[in-house]
Design goal:
This protein is an alpha/beta fold. It contains 9 helices and 8 strands. The strands form 2 sheets. The protein has a 5-stranded parallel β-sheet, sandwiched between helices. A 3-stranded antiparallel β-sheet has the order 6-5-7. Strand 5 and strand 6 form a beta hairpin. Bound molecules: adenosine monophosphate.
């Protein structure tokens, strides 16, 4: 199987992280979420984490150079040799250009961009009920996919919480950033002929079946 490099694209809260994690587990590829990488740096109070903190707290994108360095470093790891799934990166056209430039040095390129979208009211509803486990990162939803016991992760028993940037005011800012900076990647990837579009309004399994079929098509 050729090396497979996938980009997962879409507004915050659309469910792309859930889909990326499922596909990564199925294909035995690393799931690289830049949001998770930043949150980990923040927790460990690294220099990068401290630089990113202000932007993240305001719902703004972290400057391109910081993100690109982080990703380039991560995709150089041995576990990325067969390929990887990038979740939440690139988020701007310059981020993609920097990535593609790096990949071209190794005669590689992005295999496909998986783009998920849903109406804004659906996104806001999903994001406001979203809960994350503090210990293992597993996601649940207060209304659509509640944990068996409120506040307790079904997977590991850890404490669940609402991400600081998932509150209503921050979500508005994040959607604005998405429209201004990330949205232009949609026509950009479409023009490159690598955009695969998914209606993210359905159930997790229903959307995943469509995603899996597209991913299988890429391998063939
Ligand atoms: P996420 O978990 O993907 O919603 O990311 C959380 C936050 O991390 C974003 O609101 C940004 O502040 C930052 N972030 C994650 N990925 C990127 C990226 N590719 N470019 C810029 N900022 C990012």
């Amino acid at each position: 199987m050729a090396k497979i490099i996938l980009v997962f694209l879409g507004p915050p809260g659309v469910g792309k992280g859930t889909q990326a994690a499922k596909l990564a587990a199925d294909l035995h590829l690393p799931h690289i979420s830049t949001g998770d990488l930043f949150r980990d740096h923040l927790k460990r109070k690294t220099e990068l984490g401290l630089k990113a903190e202000g932007y993240m707290n305001e719902g703004k994108l972290v400057p391109d150079d910081l993100v690109v360095d982080l990703v380039v470093d991560r995709i150089g790891s041995a576990d990325c040799a067969r390929g990887y799934i990038l979740d939440g990166f690139p988020r701007t056209v310059p981020q993609d250009m920097a990535l593609e430039k790096k990949l071209a040095l190794r005669d590689e390129k992005v295999s496909a961009a998986m783009y998920f979208d849903a109406p804004r009211e659906v996104i806001v509803e999903r994001i406001s009920g979203r809960r994350t486990c503090k210990a293992c990162g597993a996601m649940s939803h207060a209304v659509f996919a509640p944990t068996r016991q409120e506040g307790v992760c079904d997977v590991c028993g850890g404490e669940t919480h609402q991400r600081a940037d998932d509150d209503a005011a921050k979500v508005t800012e994040r959607l604005k950033e998405y429209d201004n900076k990330t949205g232009p990647l949609v026509p950009y990837y479409r023009e490159k002929g690598i955009l695969h579009e998914f209606d993210a309004q359905g159930g997790v399994e229903e959307i995943y079946a469509l995603l899996k079929a597209e991913a299988n098509g890429l391998k063939g």
